[in-house]
Design goal:
By secondary structure, this protein is an alpha/beta fold. It contains 11 helices and 5 strands.
Length: 269
Amino acid sequence: MKKDFRSKAVQKIVVIGESNAFGMCASDPRNEWVQTFANLIRDFQDEPLRLFNNSIPANVISPRSTGYSFLPDIGRPSAVERYKEDLISPDPDLAVIAFGLNDSRCGNPVENFIEDLEIIVSDTAENTNALILLAGPYWNTQYNRDLWESLDPQPEWASGEYKAFAKTGRELVASYIVKMAELAGKYGCIFVDLFTPTEDCLWLMNEDHCHYNDLGQRVLGQLVFNALACSCSFIGRKSKRIEAEAGLEVGNTGGAECMSRMIRGWLDR
């Protein structure tokens, strides 16, 4: 039987991540993937839900990340430096950790990244009662060398002050995904692979080839919600209640409530 990660409703989500989790390049705040994720939970549970999005643009996992020294002031402190205040202190019942993009883009070795991520995961597991969800790195154009090299011109940031984050190829990020899934299994977390479903989908990307546009952000939020919904029974309780209270079945649903008589006739044959 499939493991049920949580049967009790979620009332407080706390998120730490980088610029895509922050919602950068979404034209409407409702499309930000973290907001999309939270609103979908609100749609399918009766209880109120509060969201604290403590993501920081340009953030990395720790000071030993190879891109840390290139960050602007707004991109600091790193996740390891701030998680106690930004993730544990708010006392979430769902803790979302969304890292791996910037670290893999700057060439941070997978061993260092996972060691630092484990510090955050293990400490959060020990000091909160939260269900922990690890959102893996998103696909970016630079992970496909052929696509990246075909860009004319390439994004300004790739040759500017953030060129340290312009490493190409998918080998490193693929190793992140494998190791994050293993770490999630070790600590009983939910892991969401956001890379594979979005790989090579340029239409989901902003023209900066780093951030996701409105559609892309919506897709990311839906993917994270899907993983939660397929792992936690609490998200189905409202639907099951409505089903029972309304007596919903094949004879009175479907066809935007216009076809029930035909369906009933078919059932009564």
